[in-house]
Amino acid sequence: MIVLLTVAIAPGLALFSFFYLRNQMKTEPRKTLLQTFIYGAILTFPIMFLQYVFKEEQVFTHPIIQEVFFTGIIEEFFKWLILLLVLFNNVEFDDPYDGVLYGAAISLGFATVENIFYLMSYGVHTAFLRAILPVSSHALFGVVMGYYLGRAKFDVSSSSIRFKSLALLAPLTLHIVYNLIFISQKHWVYIMIPFMLFLWWFSLKKVKTAHMALVELIVNKNKDSPYR
After folding, report:
1. Where are the transmembrane segments (predicted)?
2. Domain boundaries, the chain
3. Could you give the CA distance from residue 190 to residue 103 in angstroms, rounded to a whole number?
4. Contacts of 61 (CB under 8 A, 6+ apart)
């Protein structure tokens, strides 16, 4: 059991450490990050319950609606809602890169608990594939979500509502595409590989932009907007 928990938790910790250590300008309060991770972990239970009920009651007659759209929508919506209601106005959310970290934290909290349940059901031998696909994709969806929330809060030259909407719609679109590829055909792996490469490229581009905005915000505190 200890081995299973270690294997299930390790990918999430590794991915979060990767994004956390990229920020060399300041240290984000670890208590708030841990709380955000816990929020994501707690979210796993109501989301899995709703998914189970909707599937058992056959609310959606077509499996694509259930497995692709409903799953993606409910997972990303609740993560977005918690970030917006609990963390967006938190005093410790005080720079653009914080959004990236909070988005990654809440997504990895969810992905880690989900991963534990999955490995308990299907065995440790699935751990590697789970790490490089579901766990990492959740982290990257969270990064994209957090990036746009950071822009909503700190990019005063643009509409906050626009970026708050993008914080939900961008990761939701990516999640739906991921789900669609996963169940689409027998040789899904040949489509998933380029998609995951794109997802990493797209997310790391957002990470770089958020970090540059943080640097500029620190250097030029009196400027109207850190974004260019």
Report:
1. 6-21, 33-54, 69-88, 100-121, 127-149, 161-181, 187-204
2. 2-23+30-219
3. 28
4. none
Q: What is the dihedral of CA 213, 196, 68, 15, to 10 degrees?
A: -60
Quick one: tokens of 171? 């990761």
Taking the C-alpha atoms of 5, 11, 17 and 19 in order, what is their torsion angle to the nearest 10 degrees? -140
The token duo for 173 is 């679109």
What the block records as the tokens of 207 is 């990470």
Residue 173, pLDDT > 70, answer yes
What does the pLDDT read at residue 159?
Answer: 80
Q: What is the pTM of this model?
A: 0.92
Q: SS3 of 184, please?
A: helix
Q: Which spans in the chain are helix H?
A: 2-21, 30-56, 63-64, 71-82, 96-122, 127-130, 136-154, 160-184, 189-219
Q: Which band of pLDDT confidence, cut at 50, 70 and 90, is reported for residue 157?
A: confident
